[in-house]
Amino acid sequence: MHSNNIYEFNFIYETTNNINGKVYRGVHLTNNLDDEYLGSGTLLKKAIKKYGKENFSREILFFAFSRELADLAEAEFVSESWLLENKGNIYNICVGGTRASSYHLVGDKIQHRSKNKVVVIDSEGNTFQVEIDDPRYISGELVGVTKGKAVYLLDGKPILVDKDDLRIKTGELVHIFKNKIPVKFANTEKIFQVDVSDERLQTGELVHMSRNMVSSINKNGIRKMIPLSEFNDKNNNDWVGVTKNKCNMVDKDGNKYHVDISDPRILSGELFSACTNKSTFKDSEGNKYYLDISDPIIKLKNLINNNCGIGITVYNNSNETINISMEEYNNNKSLYRRINAGRIRVYSESGVEKLMYPHDDLVVSEKMKTRKEWVKLGNINIPKRNFKL
User: Fold this and answer.
1) What's the count of helices (H) and strands (E) in the chain, helices before strands?
2) Do 240 and 216 form a contact (C-beta atoms < 8 A)?
């Protein structure tokens, strides 16, 4: 906890136990960058007492220009997903930010101190706490206080606003992490944040935090980031991608759902793709916006559809993926190869769709077949596309 004093430096730090590699993340406000502060977490203090302060080192991950922004940043760096994915390798036991005293890591789950309760707001703006099975909360009469909200900067100060606030589309409000990216050094696993223009990203010295990692889930519902090599191991029967057989959908009221591809509400039309009637647009300065194609802001700011005139992604002679214009591709087809050239659309027995080459092992072994082949065998799980058999 910190007082309300104004400090010269506000930052997110990561303290590492140089003996066992365990880390602790927190927020620190100070006037002295060399104050040797390592953190105040309960488990961290015990570890420092056991191993000695000299065996710990601190690294600054993110500088904030205000106490409020520091708290918001801590919530991002010490999130629920980060706690669960790094369980056993960290000293943190609760989420960061203003919720730190409310949400704790208990076993393989994040639990609220007021378990089974939620802070809601009614139609008159009153806020209070109710049970999560309260009929008014289930029916939508009461909603969570942060539902549909996001943190943006207004004149450099963080504020909580509605996600559909017009000032977001006009650029008056800027997301607190706009043009920032979580990265790590290519040969380490320490994660910190830099500007997207950082030249070390171009040289390969820094890579995205999830580079060669896969967000996975096991049969017990435990989520974890695992190395790509481990995920692709033929002996891996424990982990699958968290989005396997999942898709993002919305209902007619705009509510979002992450559901299984076999969800009956998709077939009935109750849920439809979250990307329906959506597209990416850009302004004269190159800033991009993901909007409904009928959004009036498109005409207001003279936005151009980002898909127009961009071209295609191809392989060059060095087998590198690059973006080129359609004109360049048509004039020099011998120099480029389309990404999906030679691939066919195939399906697993349960209906999972992929683009694969005819010589791929799964196709040769007939574990993946075309829709026409499955239908001939009587399989009705394969989604119908807009073409005749």
Assistant:
1) 12, 28
2) yes
∠ CA 126-132-133, rounded to 5°: 115
> Which residues are CB-neighbours of 278 under 8 A, at least 6 positions away?
290, 291, 292, 293
The DSSP element (H or E) to which 331 belongs, if any, is: helix 326-331
CA atoms of 48 and 45, how far apart (whole Å): 5
What's the length of the chain?
Answer: 389
Tens digit of each residue's pLDDT (9 = 90 or more) over 97-106: 654 444 444 4
Nearest to 102 by CA among 140, 145, 58, 65: 145
Percent helix / strand / coil, the chain, rounded to 5: 20, 35, 45
Q: What is the DSSP letter of 90?
A: B
Query: Do the beta carbons of residue 274 and residue 259 sit within 8 Å?
Result: no
Residues facing residue 344 across a β-bridge: 356
The two three-digit tokens of residue 199, written as one number: 């030249």
DSSP helix/strand/coil, 59: strand
* 94 alpha carbon, distance to own chain's centre: 20
Q: Which is more confident, 364 or 186?
A: 364
Q: Which residues lie below 8 Å from residue 200, measured CB to CB, with a gap of 6+?
A: 194, 206
Which segments of 142-179 are extended strands (E)?
143-144, 149-154, 157-162, 174-175
Place of tokens 């999906």: 340
pLDDT tens, 180-222?
Answer: 777 777 776 666 678 888 888 878 788 877 777 777 777 776 6
Collect all residues with Cβ–Cβ distance below 8 Å to 301 and sequence separation of at least 6.
169, 170, 283
Spatial distance between the Cα atoms of 288 and 267, rounded to a whole number of angstroms: 33
Task: Rank 110-114, 244-248, 377-381 by mean pLDDT and report only the highest.
Answer: 244-248
Report the range out of 125-129, 195-199, 220-224, 252-256 with the highest average pLDDT: 195-199
Q: How far apart are CA 295 and CA 343, in angstroms?
A: 36
Please report the DSSP string for 225-276 in residue order: EEEHHHHT-TT--S-EETTTTEEEEE-TT--EEEEETT-HHHHHTSSEETTT
Nearest in space to 83 (alpha carbons), one of 42, 192, 74, 21: 74
Sheet holding 174-175, edge to edge: 157-162, 149-154, 174-175
Q: First CA to last CA across the chain, in angstroms?
A: 66
Task: Answer yes or no: pTM beyond 0.90.
Answer: no
Q: Round to whole Å and give the CA distance between 105 and 90.
A: 11
Chain centre to alpha carbon of residue 155:
26
